[in-house]
Batch of 2 targets.
Target 1
Amino acid sequence: MSNSFSLQDAARSGLVDVSSNASLTRFLHGLPGVDLVGLEARAAMLGTRSIKTTAKAEGIDLAIRMIDLTTLEGMDTRGKVRSLCAKARRPDPYDATVPSPAAICVYGDMVGHAKDALSGTSIKVAAVATAFPSGRASPRVKLMDVQDAVAQGADEIDMVIDRGAFHEGRYLDVLEEIIAVKAACGNAHLKVILETGELKTYDNIRRASWLGMLGGGDFIKTSTGKVSPAATAPVVLLMLQAIRDFHKSTGQIIGMKPAGGIRTTKDAMKMLVLVKETLGDRWLDPDLFRIGASALLNDLLMQRTKLRTGAYSGPDYVTVD
Amino acid sequence: MTFEYAPALESTSVVSLKDQYGLFINGEFVNAQAGEHFATLNPANEDHLANISQGSSHDIDVAVKAARKAFTTWSAMPGAERGKYLYRIARIIQDRSREIAVLETLDNGKPIRETRDVDIPLVAAHFFHYAGWADKLEYAGMGNNPQPLGVAGQIIPWNFPLLMLAWKIAPALAAGNTVVLKPAEETPLTALLFAEICQQADLPPGVVNIVTGDGSTGRALVEHPDVNKIAFTGSTEVGRLIAHAVAGTHKKVTLELGGKAANIVFDDAPIDQAIEGVVNGIFFNQGHVCCAGSRLLIQESVYDQFMELLYDRCNTLRLGNPLDKNTDVGAINSAAQLARITEIAATGDAEGAHRWTASCAIPEKGFWYPPTIFTDVSQANRIAREEIFGPVLSVLTFRTPEEAIEKANNSPFGLSAGIWTEKGSRILQVASQLRAGVIWANTFNKFDATSPFGGYKESGYGREGGRHGLEPYLKVGV
């Protein structure tokens, strides 16, 4: 899946003429429009799915395995990262059957500490890079940011696209930057953050999704978590539809990562429903669907205990990390 | 990983069914004169639900007399006072919405998600809307002092039982009329629950009368000499009989009949939302919708792409127990309707159309028909011309907007149509040339209490809903 993409690859796909910004613009603006009312109605309808008993139990464990357990604060310390890694190794001190989340997601300077703390496990370390969250730095600095995180051992890179360039209509610049970051990733998987809350319209989100996939992103991701709104149901649905269309056109399978605002088990179940009914069961896999979250894990653990014991233990029985 | 949804059944404990129901006349439940009954079934499993009284022409006469008597006081009551009763009814419907939704699903077979999220909220909305009109009739644009007609005879179908009751009763009462309503024999239970709600709201006796029965009961109501107005929703065939029966009398008539709506998808449509609109247009309520988008007209340049997505989407439809909160497609309402759907769909095969069926398991008991799509359909085929009233979509193609409009209008019906395009000017250009009473742009099967609904040609005449919906219940311009 970690195909190294170049502009030539994008061009060779035959889908899109990337010889100029004008031709790329024509392609992106030729994608089907998005009707806001209809998209939101469909997302709301899928939000009414009732997930009970066995489905809920299965969904909770699946959601735990899909989490990118995240801390992205200016005041992150080595101690905080170590504690989060310990949580990932053993999410519930009272129950060894709880699976681990897929990855820990940290700033670049914490990658080495996270790798140490997770050694011997299959839990990945993801680093945000490219002048996260704003993306406002020179291309040179952004690439160095990526290279540094990869050198420290990051398994996955979460980059942000240049929203300024996007709004200026410089789509080719956005695409070329993604391609360059992908090249800098080496074997690390690339997640392309669109920051949908700054793209504003659903049409923009569909176009940016295509840029992320054409540029070689292994995943496309909604948000940094620093901008609201973030991973709303309609946005996630729309990006899943873009992944479906890309798959139909190229045969390539791209992953999806909603992040930002997913805090409760109910939120997580809604995400799984969106995936199941848009892309199908194949995407119900931590290799293809991740949930970027911090508080979510504890709510999943409390609901998991409640399902198993019938009693709601409360927040004092899950660890605060 | 499969993440199969576990059963999520809505509880039926909120509903208390009686073994046997009487007629609701003059504020009370009474026995039918002849004492005859018929059964109403749960179409999802063929369980017997209750015995329903067969109203005779004598019972109709008693009900009309009660309505005539009540009319004197009801019509003289200040509009604001009538409004209070309607508001009260609307609030009780909201309070008891879960009970009503479950009962409707049991009797009709439609999914609980639809009764809960569509039917019952709309029922309350219609009563709220017309409650507001009751003291504002002078400002409805129908003359200085519009007067009620008298006794309205109302006959409603089985596809949206309580919603059709609301469409009929709310404007009639707001305008100062009294009513005798005959629910469909297949789905009388929510109308009888509504009778209880009228009692709960202290509605004066005789203002609303509900007489259950079959077609003969309906005929007695239509032919009763002291009825001032007939409002009918149902088949074009019965609509014709009613038009004949009232011809030459003083009775005002509104008829809301069949349809064969064109859902037109242009190549610049918002494709994913158009897919949803097409699915909702024909599979909502198992296609038991007079305004269903039963003809998909799709521009040839996007045909292949669109159909692939449409088949994929239809394979995700969840058919099964209507009480399961995750069910998308419920049961066909009756054995007779299932036979009719099966018969007309078979002509699609015989006339050379290509049948596609959604991959969903069919329950063993009850009346079921899987979501079905016919391609290679031509305008001459029966499945392109006749109303099937079931989950069967006929797909036709077009090359130009002119061709789409021509094909859409080439139907004896004219109830509704849909246009899918991101281009605003095309919406206006096409909509202005379609001969249909309701035209949706980038949506379908969207109903609102403030919006008029009704048809052209064989789809009937008169409008229900909104300000326009008052007109059939008023002596206009007096």
Note: Residues 237 and 274 of chain A are 6 Å apart (CA to CA).
Target 2
Amino acid sequence: MKKKILISFFLVITVVPVLAGLIYAFLYSLGITGVISKGLTFSYWKEILYSSGFFLSLFYSLIIGAITIFISFFIAYFIYPFFINGSGKGQLIMFIPLSIPPMVWAFYHYLMFSGAGFISRLSYHLGLISNPGEFPVLVNDNFGTIVILTHVVMAFPFFTLYFIRIHNSEKIDRLTTLAKNFGASDSEVSWRVRLPIIFLKSRVLLILYLVFVAGSYEVPLLLGSQSPRMITVFTLEKMQRFDLYDKPVAYGAAFLYAIVVLIIVLFSLKRSFRTDEGRV
Amino acid sequence: MMLRNIIFLFVIILSGCNSEKQQSDKGEEISDDWSEVLKSSRGKKVTWMMWQGDPYINKYVSSYVVPNVKEKFGIDLEVVSGQGNQIVSTLIAELEAGSSSSELDMVWINGETFYQLRQIGALHGPFLEKLPNTKFIDFSNKFINKDFQQSIDGYECPWGNVQLALIYNKDMVEEPPKSLKELKTWVKDNPGQFTLSNDFTGITLLKSWMIGLSGDPELFTGEFSEEVYSKYSDKLWDYIKEIKPYLWRQGETFPANIAQMHQLFSNGELAFTMSNNDGEVDNKILQGLFPESSRAFIFNEGTIRNSHYLGIVEGSDKKEAAAVVINYLISPEAQLHKMKPSVWGDGTVLSLNELPDSLKVAFESIEERKYAPDREEIYELALEEPAPEYMIRLFEDFRQKIIEQ
């Protein structure tokens, strides 16, 4: 009975509000509810599904997320061994970038990498460029260069700390010694022993972090491109711009994005459980 | 049992979905007797949502308006930050939640927000005839009595009147281009130094250009015309496509808002910026944000002139106190102070002919603007705001036909 009450309580504070929000967004996008509602219509969904805006933004966001995770994973993978046997001060340094809010990182990078930013000014004084227009476009570019950089500087310290925990809990040191006793080289140990363990054990976290990056707002708002836009920027623009009848489109886009994310997370969790049970 | 509880909770939460337009209690009405209005407003707290992106405007409100309404009328004026879309979102959320009274009492708006708020019935009115100081307002002026071609119908009170101006750095631009034709040549000769912001101000420039390219501003008066829009927006896109490769960043991206564009201008990355307030160049120089070599001008084709307004929220339960504050904001005293370039530099909505001689003289002897063009001169080049649909369409098409190409 006590267990049932606890489960009910958990569902009430987590699942129910989220589901209610999703249902509300769905009804709004169908014109069934909302202050501008004029009854059931599929016109907003036609705009979401048939215009390229939503899917382009979704794909772009996931690509930005995937590149961020890929770069951060390998930076963390190669640097975490240097922090394992330290006094702990090294690990403490990793907490510094994590303690800075994303918006502050974004602003800092804007001041560093924009056309009239610190690096551009330095290049000017060194005679490398003669005006700000010659400085390469890094901020607000289509490749999301500084968006990725901003997320990487926050992600890799987090991954590093996480990999240290995995390394210790999975006793990778002992497995390394064992592999070497069987004649494995350092490179073979790194690629065929350490990497698979770290990757499989952190897979769910990587997926969740990808979803977090793809759904970030402040960083792409300041540093991202206007075309294509990250999915959050796309949705918020629809929500806040001049046309009231874009609001149901924004609700529909938010609903669809949530469903896509839910599918990705559930799929990765299912795969992770199967792995843990030895059915890769 | 557990399932039943969860379904019950769902029903409760989702019952909110059908609660829009339930703000049945419209709060107090504004009495016809102004002395009653003043009496009942004393001791009330009024919440005003307004754009707070300019330190001069913020200072005018916090150091001048707030203490004066407290001292003169006993009203505590609380200012909260938010512009068009946030005002609309807040009031929509309140309507959909069925709140009995609004968090906001008065709002600072202009045409596109007025259009949206009228659509959802979030503005109180008509209330203008109840404000004593409206007798000084120049309602014969077409730039004041209409807002984006919509009759204001007493649902918003004119507060200030301004015109879009381009600002250039004369150290970088010896002689600014005075027409769209000259601009095209200048942009091609000086690549990377001109752009427009992808926001309200930038779209206002596009509207001005579209009207300018038509050669007949009268076409854009009255209700939205699909035929007029199609014909002249095509001309506008052709013009922009021709200069796009020579714009800042080759026109692949545009500053997201005017603040970003001002920053690019002040650090020398751009030779031009723009402002919806023709007098802003003076106060930005005084603030030290723009170089002293900055100057403002208007294209020969003209630019949009419009007013900004104050509205009372329908769901407010302090409408009378909000009306007292608005009445003070349109008083000759407050308008005179606001018009000074060292304070804000905002154009007045009052008709000087309606004012007593002493006040008229005071308005006429306001210190001259040093860097902005003469008010009378640019008035000759003023274009009316077209209907709100032009802005909605231009914003969407600018994305599809220019940014995404």
Note: DSSP finds 14 helices and no strands in chain A.
